[in-house]
Amino acid sequence: MEQREKKSYRPRPSLTFNMAPMIDIVFLLIIFFVLVGTFASAEHIRMDLPNPDESQARNEKLSDRAIINIQLINPDDDTSPIVYSIGPNPPEPLEVIDRRLAANKAAFPDLKVIIRADRRARYADVRAAMEIIADNGIEMMNMAALLGPQPTGN
């Protein structure tokens, strides 16, 4: 008789995935984001803010760049008077703009000025702004222009 070799039967180790630690981490993350969201929403206090159209405050923030806007009071009338303003500020006389440029030049010696003029403005009005810039010793001036086809007359 032949001897048969006995094969020993070993069970294969099973590969299982333990979900308990993953569930713990998910719950911790949920709690963390709920708490952070609660703290972040507490920073936003509900309040009634003033209407900027009714504000009497002026934007006095100085910068190393000033933009002088030259525009017509009435955009529909080519013969309407010209107004000057620095940036988003309301229109002001050239004397006030002169003082503002002098203050900006004192704070920023390398002040740069950009002139934006309505294409219907006369050269004499633009030249008046350029003379104020030169009188204040500002050496860097740029002109902004709209490139493209000229508008057709009505």
Comma- or semicolon-separated keywords:
154 residues; Nucleotidyltransferase, domain 5; 3 helices; elongated
TL;DR?
The chain has 154 residues and is of the alpha/beta class.
Radius of gyration: 36 Å
CATH topology of the domain at 63-144: Nucleotidyltransferase, domain 5
- The structure class reads alpha/beta
CATH architecture group name of the domain at 63-144: 2-Layer Sandwich
Low-confidence stretches: none
The helical percent reads: 25-40%
DSSP helix count? 3
Determine the N-to-C terminus distance: 120 Å
Question: Which geometry do the CA atoms define?
Answer: elongated
What does it look like?
This protein has 154 residues and is an alpha/beta fold. The protein has a domain of 82 residues: Nucleotidyltransferase, domain 5 (2-Layer Sandwich). It is 32% helix and 16% strand. It contains three helices and four strands. The chain has a four-stranded mixed beta sheet, covered by helices on one side. Helix 3 links the parallel strand 3 and strand 4. Helix 2 runs parallel beside helix 3. The chain is elongated. The protein starts with 19 loop residues before the first helix and ends in a 10-residue tail after the last strand. The model has no long low-confidence stretch (mean pLDDT 79).
